[in-house]
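Q: what sequence does this backbone want?
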């Protein structure tokens, strides 16, 4: 994959921390976790409404503990994005595509968007909480900022499936129109408009529409339960997304924050909280991040919940 403007590779090679050699061999845990994620999502979408809800609406409470599992679910997709879920490229990408369909957004879009994040993090293109007082105000920036923070990011990822109906030429024109120095949106759409990528994007978008249409039909009169569960997913995804970067140094593309979590929650998050380590060593598997963290001195910048909460202070003025 390449940056459509520079033709530089948008990828991360699996490397051990501080060493120029391939990372360790695959552990079976990733395959098991991927299988578990598929089962949990199929339970949420189909088994719960078709098998348990007919026996009583109280079974819908089982959706509540599934919402926090959004974090490890996304972390598995994140591993696939970086090619570290499964060493074999074809198996890795297929697993990423299946997980992303269940997540609700095509894998190629999530992958391109995330790798652009690594490429442009904290630059003018990718600093979502920063506003320039020379061109706008806090009051004008705040509504869009809080909408994105409170679920809007996930909503945009889901609504991206609508791009699948546009002809390739129109997509390319849209990408060019949206390509400004303040966003990666144009670069993202231009990448999706490439023929091979667009075919995959359309196939996965169709699978998402079919899967979620069938799921809402399966819930019948309880459709609101699934919608509420997806709302919880949207909140978890959107609040977590920029917590590792909010208020950090600008133009420091390789930096992020390591956020403190109890060890059990760190394991549940698949070490996603060690985000500074990940940004500097994006080819490390999730179970290699703690070793690199300790080898580099084991420094936490903030607690996870404090970092997530301080985002609600709102947009930050460019200085």
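A:
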């Amino acid at each position: 994959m390449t940056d459509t403007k520079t033709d530089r590779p948008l990828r991360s090679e699996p490397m051990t921390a501080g060493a120029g050699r391939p990372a360790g061999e695959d552990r079976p845990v990733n395959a098991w976790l991927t299988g578990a994620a598929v089962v949990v999502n199929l339970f949420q979408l189909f088994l719960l409404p078709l098998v348990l809800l007919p026996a009583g609406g109280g079974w819908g409470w089982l959706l509540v503990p599934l919402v926090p599992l959004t974090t490890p679910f996304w972390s598995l997709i994140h591993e696939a994005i970086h090619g570290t879920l499964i060493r074999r490229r074809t198996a890795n990408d297929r697993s990423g595509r299946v997980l992303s369909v269940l997540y609700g957004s095509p894998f190629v879009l999530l992958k391109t968007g995330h790798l652009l994040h690594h490429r442009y993090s904290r630059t003018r293109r990718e600093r979502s909480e920063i506003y320039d007082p020379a061109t706008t105000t806090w009051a004008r920036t705040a509504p869009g900022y809080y909408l994105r923070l409170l679920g809007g990011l996930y909503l945009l990822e889901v609504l991206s499936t609508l791009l699948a109906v546009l002809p390739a030429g129109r997509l390319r024109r849209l990408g060019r129109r949206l390509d400004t120095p303040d966003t990666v949106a144009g670069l993202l759409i231009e990448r999706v408009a490439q023929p091979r990528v667009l075919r995959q994007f359309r196939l996965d978008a169709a699978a998402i529409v079919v899967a979620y249409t069938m799921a809402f039909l399966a819930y019948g009169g309880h459709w609101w339960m699934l919608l509420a569960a997806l709302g919880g997913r949207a909140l978890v995804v959107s609040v977590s997304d920029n917590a590792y970067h909010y208020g950090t140094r600008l133009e420091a593309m390789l930096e992020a924050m390591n956020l403190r979590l109890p060890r059990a929650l760190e394991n549940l998050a698949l070490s996603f909280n060690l985000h500074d380590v990940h940004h500097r060593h994006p080819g490390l598997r999730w179970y290699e991040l703690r070793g690199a963290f300790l080898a580099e001195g084991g420094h936490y910048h903030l607690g996870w919940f404090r970092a997530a909460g301080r985002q609600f202070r709102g947009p930050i003025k460019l200085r």
